[in-house]
UniProtKB/TrEMBL annotation:
It comes from Hydrococcus rivularis NIES-593. GO terms for molecular function: oxidoreductase activity, acting on CH or CH2 groups, with an iron-sulfur protein as acceptor. This is Coenzyme F420 hydrogenase. Residues 162-309 form the Coenzyme F420 hydrogenase/dehydrogenase beta subunit C-terminal domain. Residues 78-154 form the Coenzyme F420 hydrogenase/dehydrogenase beta subunit N-terminal domain.
Amino acid sequence: MTSVAPHKKAKALKPNSRRPAKELCSECGLCDTYYIHYVKEACAFLNQQIAELEAEAHGRSRNLDSQDDWYFGVHQDMMAARKKQPIEGAQWTGIVSTIACEMLNRGIVEGVVCIQNTKEDRFQPKPVLAKTPEEVLAAKVNKPTLSPNLSVLEEIEKSGMKRLLVIGVGCQIQALRTVEKELGLEKLFVLGTPCVDNVTRAGLQKFLDTTSKSPNTVVHYEFMQDFKVHFKHEDGSIEKVPFFGLKTNQLKDVFAPSCMSCFDYVNSLADLVVGYMGAPFGWQWIVVRNEKGQEMLELVREQLDTQPVMSKGDRKQAVQQSIPAYDKGVTLPMWAAKLMGVVIEKIGPKGLEYARFSIDSHFTRNYLYVKRNYREKLESHVPEFAKRIVGQYKLPE
Ligand code: FAD
Ligand code: SF4
């Protein structure tokens, strides 16, 4: 039996008390546990340390001479993939849930940290330590709200588990990586998704109310590569709203301040990342960061169709034009938004170039947000790779 050196503990914060990162808190869950002891070091919004943690997790940090590293982080492989038999009701084709189920079925891990929803509300996240594939499948589909994934960390130690898979987004994974050594685990696997523009539950309601024609029947939505938000409704119908027609003036404050100051869109510290934005429409995008990530992907390889990543178009002008438009909160009339969507879809960036478009637009916006609201944090909070990405554009003061 291995013995674990006792780690330092502190008292978890009460649910509604102010968090150390104050309004920048993304409710990652760390402060709901005694691991709050490590918060000054671990919190993604108090101590940005992506390069150091990359070196620990992947054996190296981003190569700043490589633009692919700036954008997609440390990686050894990338591809587009989709499940031959998609999981009904998953966010995309269910690659994330399938990997987690395989890891449990084969005994590679004993538990999976994932996010179910509460009984009353399909979008209210409920972090769980799943021990069966059924519990993992009950966590399929995004709960597009801030989610305290790490609130189950104390449960892991109490359960005595030694091999664990954690599914999560960038800010949760940064904190996890910092306390990883304190969890008493023999093996930790991290399966990440990209994440951007997240909201509180109240913010989500405002977004649905201002954007969808039928906010109460939305079961799932995604900002798609065709420059439209696709809302899936309870009856299976799909409602499409062009990005350029979003009521940016009303939605400006809807995104959480944490997400307006985040530069870890691509989940730099996960072993394997599964998203969609670097892949053709209908496919998922897979980034393998290290050998553990490769091991996880191999478990489901036979269940996937795959194709190499591709890149087409030039995003730079569209990004430059979007900067002042967002800044001023311009909303196009719906007919113009639709027209612009059609034109951009025909000639616009595709594949990895679409992913770069999305990263550039969000990083320039977030850089301005941090500069205006947290100037004293700008230098240390913005990672070097993000400064180089933002440096390609002309920003307003
Ligand atoms: P599924 O098999 O349906 O599994 C989804 C998994 O997500 C579940 O295991 C669940 O535990 C976990 N989960 C659900 N809600 C949360 C949450 N709030 N926080 C942490 N984990 C959660 N991809 C892109 O390429 N570009 C984007 O801009 C992008 N934005 C995203 C924004 C948010 C808020 C989230 C949660 C994800 C985002 N993704 C983005 C990832 C993408 O939407 C899919 O989650 C991913 O491709 C996996 O799809 P799947 O069908 O394999 O997942
Ligand atoms: Fe604590 Fe996480 Fe909030 Fe930081 S983001 S203050 S670690 S709950």
